[in-house]
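Appendix B. Chain record.
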Amino acid sequence: MFRLLFVLFILIPILEIYLLIQVGGIIGALPTVLIVIATAIIGAFLLRLQGISTLQRVQTTLSQGEIPAVELMEAVILLVCGALLLTPGFFTDAVGFLGLLPYTRRLFIFWLIKRIGIHASTPGVPRNHSQPKIIEGEYRRED
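Structure tokens predicted for this chain:
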């Protein structure tokens, strides 16, 4: 895990610098800088909308007495995507915008749930019924 993060922290800035130079060479420096600023502003606006929507779904799920596991995972992804959108560059902006799309965000969450092996009672995520459900506790009757 540490090696992967180390490689990403080295390769992503190199890729971003390369893309900025290439795009700047084609359309010029000022338009490139304006595009980077515009994507940050648009991303922040969309992030705000998606964040409010996710917060409302968390509140709805809690009011129904359920645990908002998927919604909380969405909030974490939105946080990461917000950081990516504020990072100058085209690659991080593309990944950040993909995370803002509800469909791709949900696909990533369900892929992650299957990969990690989390068993949840979330709609659309099958539970592992091979093990019996055992609830331990104490019981005392008071009159």
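Further analysis of this model is presented in Appendix C.
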